[in-house]
Amino acid sequence: MELNFLIYKVILVLIVFSITLLVATYSTYAERKIAAFLQDRIGPDRAGPFGILQPLADAVKMFMKEEMIPSVSNKILFIIGPGLCMLTACMTGVIIPWGKSINIGGVDYPMQIADVNIGILYLFGVLSLGVYGIMIGGWASNNKYSLLGAIRASSQMISYEVAMGISIIALVMTTGTLSTGEIAAQQTSWHWNVLYQPLGCLIFIICAFAETNRAPFDLPECETELVGGYHTEYSSMKLGLFLFAEYINMFISSAVISTFYFGGYNMPLIGRWVHDPNWLAILGFVFLFMKIVGFIFFFMWVRWTLPRFRYDQLMNLGWKVLIPLSILNMVLTGTWMMRHEIMAYFSK
Question: pTM of the prediction?
Answer without folding.
Answer: 0.92
